Amino acid sequence: MSEEKNKGGRPSKFSEGDLKLIKYMCKKGATDKQIAEELDVCVATIANWKVSSPEFLDSLKDWKKEADAEITRSLFERAKGYSCKETKVFCHEGMIVSEDIVKHYPPDPTSMIFWLKNRQPQEWRDKTEVVSTNTNMSLEEFLKQQSENKEK
Fold first, then answer.
1. Do 22 and 15 form a contact (C-beta atoms < 8 A)?
2. SS3 state at 106
3. Cβ neighbours of residue 28 under 8 Å, at least 6 residues apart?
């Protein structure tokens, strides 16, 4: 019977029970640092687990992608506006009444701006490039220089 040689160092704190907690935290947007703090390990330990277990690394990436996709969808919905069902509870003539309604949320300009600046930065960025010109140059010389630059 062959025994596996001890590689030295402290045994890993990673357990399969931690996997459910890590999955939950990733889906809630936790960073590697936050996961490490919750598990009482250092961030380097999380990095080591990723290297030693490609399955663990793939799972982390997938869980984080799920969280990112949910936020992307929420930002998109907020930017374009949306409607959702809601139960409204109120008192009518001394009786508690509940009514299902559809609540409408209008498009949010801040979300639109954020979306467009990130998706189409060339068209929606705040910063514009200013071309510095030689003030001693005549308008004709400047226009000639600009047309030459466009041809290049």
1. no
2. coil
3. 67
Question: CA–CA separation, 85 vs 103, rounded Å?
Answer: 6
72-89 burial, b if ≥16 CB within 10 A, otherwise e? eeebebbbeeeeeeeeee
Instruction: Quote the pTM value.
Output: 0.59
Based on its alpha-carbon atoms, the radius of gyration of the chain, rounded to whole angstroms, reads 28
For residue 10, give Cα distances in angstroms to 7, 14, 39, 142: 9, 12, 16, 70
Which tens digits make up the pLDDT trace of 31-76?
A: 999 999 999 999 999 999 999 889 989 999 999 999 999 999 999 9
